[in-house]
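Can anyone check this?
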Amino acid sequence: GTLVNWNGKPLATTVLSGTQATAVVPAALLSAQGTAKVTLTNPAPGGGPSAPLPFVIAPAAATLHTFPAGLQMLAVTEDYANVGLSGALSDSSHALLVWNPATAVYETRTDLHPGAAYWTRLSKPTDLLDTGTPAPTSGPFSIALRAGWNMIGDPFPTAVALSSLTVRDAIGTQGTFHQAVSGGVVSGTLYAYPAGSTQYQKVGQDGNLTPFDGDWIYAFRACTLL
């Protein structure tokens, strides 16, 4: 006789044990944003409704981008530190790997940040949700590079020309990307691996960082991309 109630109205309930019951919530009750009150009613004697618990129905998150299935090096344009992978991706069951140039090994990541890139192999198309914090545009966006190969990504939803970047070295000297290449600070060739690729794609000094695609860049010494 135990029933689960949704805003006071009983739902189809299945009693599993003396302490557990499940109920089916029709999709129509979840179609509008809001908060429902869930109660449990036990039969007499000693029955009656429990205190209500809130069930929050949030609006569906918009999709920023859909990553296709397959092996790829991807990047994001929002910071998902507060929502984690399950709040950022429609399918968060896949591993994300990032190369650490300091240790020369791949490391697993459980968060997504703009300016970085991540290796993954998706078994199906996966949505990137608009649930993060967009990269700030009030000033230059900084990407720290260590000596060696670094995985980076376009932090913005529009392409960024490499020629528009500046590079600051460890002692504070700053110049254009072309000057940093000629000065032996960074390599002038980047390498991308978009979904569907079977080999790396070269990106020259006059190329772009592309939204949602990751790139390899080689730094001869520690520096910062702006």
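Reply from J.R.: I decoded it. The two ends are 65 Å apart (CA to CA).
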